Amino acid sequence: MPFPRNNILRRRPGRPIRYSIPAACTRHLVFACRIGGRGWRCAWKSFSTGSNPLVANKLKGLPLYHPRFWLTWVAVGVLRLLALLPYGLIQTLGPAVGRLYVLAMPGRKVIARTNIDLCFPDRSPEWRKQLLKDSFDSLGKTLLEAPLAWWAPTRRVAKLAHIHGMENLQAALARGKGVLLLTAHLNSPEFGGRLLVNEQSFVAMYRPSNNPVIDRMISRARLRWLPQIITRHNVRGVIRALKEGKAVWYAVDQNAGRRESVFAEFFGIPASTNPATARLARLSGALVVPFRAVRREDGKGHDIFLEAPWEDFPSGDLVADTRRVNDLVERWVRETPEQYMWIHRRFRTRPQRSDPRLYPVD
User: Fold this and answer.
1) What percent of the chain has pLDDT over 70?
2) How many independent structural domains does the chain possess?
3) Is the N or the C terminus of the chain less surrounded, counting Cβ atoms within 10 Å?
4) Cα–Cα distance between 318 and 330 in angstroms, integer?
């Protein structure tokens, strides 16, 4: 079933979304075997370069069951199986998965180490080395928690949520102006969102994947528990949802490039930041409620924190408002640094093109 082209996806009430992954994998296996080695190479390229924007248009022009996506479908099947793992086993296996990730993606370890060195220059080398290890242990758990968020039944995930401050969100929604649920890539925002939606429905903003199979999988999985998802470029759709009094889930802590971004300090370093939080709040009149999920040390789920709505926001000063967003994320990171996604090149875009690059791999 093709998706609508208006950048808004909605779930039809009473219509569960189903598709046969085993059948798809079987068709890919048969076809790849028929055409020999070329089929396997195409499948590997589909899986390994699906996030490359240079091949994104070519991939999106292919049928979903093209042999180039065979390995991707296999990965989807593996993810569906991982959703069956008990939560306690996920916490046990997570560190091993994190170490495998480092072996498979050594460049990400370099990025994470660089970020930690930039953000904590006053800490000892031993402390930063331990944080690097702990962060990949946490990342491994996050990777295993994502399938649980997508496909696990509500009765399984509901008992893992420990929500604090729900009255803040309810009070903000009661004003009827809409709410921006401001979050960051701490731990697993995907899993945190799944835990919160069991108590309060909301709309999610998302970035479509360049790989159409992955995009189809994630979009359909999210629509199992979300009433609506909107692409991050569909500003009108977001503003419309906010003006209808809905809550919109929005992550803000990634490098925003050079176009229409604001450089605001993050850990004392000028960071390219999307100022959309202040702009959306100004255009829609919505309130901003900070939201984060923190993995519990006892391994019994996540603490969901909903902070009080921001007052005097936006202030009219776009740079100051964006700095306020970065200060919020920095406070969260300092409280649980091991649960932050350090593998992202947060400081990739520099204020001046002539400024030296901060990452050895770019």
Assistant:
1) 83
2) 2
3) N
4) 18
